[in-house]
Amino acid sequence: MAKRLRDNLNSDYFSAVNSMKSKTARKRIVAYVESYDDVFFWRTVLREFEDDKHYFEVMLPSKVSLAKGKKQVLMNLVGDNVGEDMIACVDADYDFLMQGATKTSENIVGNPYVFHTYVYAIENFQSYAPSLHDVCVMVTLNDHQVFDFEEYMRQYSLAIFPLFVWSIWYYRTPNYAEFSISDFNKTIETGHFTMQNAANGIANVRHKVGRKVMQLQRLNPDAKESYMALKDELKQLGVTPETTYLYIQGHHLYDNVTTPMVTKVCDKLRRERETEIHRKAMHNTQMRNELSCYEHSIENVGSMLKKNTGYIRSPQYQWLRADIEHYMKNRSDLRVPPELKDNSITTQHTTTTER
Questions:
Q1: Residues 6 or more apart in contact with residue 227 via CB below 8 angstroms
Q2: H helix count then E strand count, the chain
Q3: Is 224 helix (H, G, I), strand (E, B) or coil?
Q4: d(Cα 333, Cα 11) in Å, to the nearest integer?
C-alpha cells in the first residue's frame, strides 16, 4: 500500500487532481524540499508566484516515511515524476558548480522542474553579508552599526578563494577524498571570533590557506592550466573572490562564521542599549521596568538568522527567482493557443495604448 502511494505521487497524479477541480479553482503545485528547515525558505521564494490560478504547497519528499534530504528528494522525484504540478526544490551544494559532471549535478542543472539555490545552501543565503546588520537590529532593537559585516565577509572570501578553487578541482576528480570538503573546512576556520581580533582571524586564515595551496601545488605539478581554467569558469558561474563565502558548505559557514560573529556583535549592541537605560533612568524602579521591557523585546540570534530574508537583494536569489518565473510563464495552462496569439497581441497593444 505504501509503495502504491509513493508511485502515485508524481506530477501526472497532481495534474489529474487539478483537472477534476472547477475551472475557477486554483491549481495546486506541490514543491518537495529536503528538510523541515527548508520549508520556510522555499515558501518565501514561491509565494511571490501564487495568484488566483495557482498556489504552492511546500512539503517533505514522502508522506509515508520520515526519509528526508537531497538524495531522497532527487531519487524519488527526478525523471518522469517531476513536472508542471510537482517540482523539487533543493540546495545547490557543489552540484551547481559541477555543471553536470555527475548524475546528481546533471539533475540539478538540467531538469527544468528541479530548482536549486545557486549558493551552496539556504544557510549561505541567511548569512548574506548586506543583511546581517538588519538581523542584529531585529535581535537587539539597536540600529547602531558597530561592525562592517560586508567588509569582513569580503576579506574572508578573498582569503579562502584560492583554496576553494582547489576544493572544486578535487571534487571534480575521482581523487576528491584526497582533499575533501571537510579538509577544506578545517583549513578555513577562523578560530575564536571577537570584534577586536577580526582582522587577526582573517590573517590567520590567509596564512593557513597559503600553506595548503603550496602543498596542493606540489602534489599536482601539472594542474596549473586546469586550475586556471576552472577559476575562470567559476567566475563565469558567479563565484567571485569577494563572494566565495556564499558557495562554501552552508552549515560550516553558519555555525562557525556567521553565528559566532553575529552573536558577538549583538552582545555589544545589547550592552549598549542596557547602558543607555541605566544612564537615562530617573530612579531604580524605572530602570528595572525599562530593562525588563527591553529583555522581553529582544530576540534570539539563531531564530532571527533563520527568519532573515535580506538575501532577496542578492544576485543569486534573483537567478533563482528568474528560474521560477520562467517556469510559471511557460506552464501549459498559461500558454496562449496559436490561433489566439495574434488577437491577444492586438488586444494587449490596444489596451496599453488606451491607458
A1: 165, 166, 169, 220
A2: 18, 4
A3: helix
A4: 14
User: Residue 90 in 3-state DSSP?
Assistant: strand
> What span, in angstroms and rounded, lies between the C-alpha atoms of 18 and 333?
11
Average of pLDDT values for 189-207? Answer: 95
Indicate whether 246 pLDDT > 80: yes
- Does 41 score more than 60 pLDDT? yes
Residues β-bridged to residue 29: 56
Task: For residues 246 and 317, give the distance between their C-alpha atoms in angstroms, rounded to a whole number.
Answer: 11
Handedness of CA 81, 82, 85, 91 (dihedral sign): positive
Instruction: Between 26 and 224, name the one with better pLDDT.
Output: 224
Classified as helix, coil or strand, 112 is: coil
Is-contact 11 83, C-beta < 8 A?
Answer: yes
Q: What's the CA gap between 337 and 351, in Å, rounded? A: 20
Q: Which of 255, 257, 239 is nearest to 120 (CA)?
A: 239
146-172 per-residue burial string, b: 16 or more CB within 10 A, e: under 16: ebebeebbbbbbbbbbbbbbbbbbbbb
pLDDT digit string, tens, across residues 271-301: 999 999 899 889 999 899 988 998 998 999 9
Please report the pLDDT score of residue 350 as a whole number: 36
Q: How far is residue 110's CA from residue 113's CA, in Å, rounded to a whole number?
A: 9
Q: How far apart are CA 245 and CA 179, in angstroms?
A: 19
Question: 61 and 72 in contact (C-beta within 8 Å)?
Answer: yes
Contact (Cβ atoms closer than 8 angstroms) between residue 291 and residue 274: yes
Task: Supply 24's cell numbers.
Answer: 475557477
What does the block give as the cell for 304?
A: 532571527
Residue 265 has, within 13 A of its CA and on its CB side, a CA count of 26
| pLDDT range class, residue 7, cuts 50, 70, 90 | very low
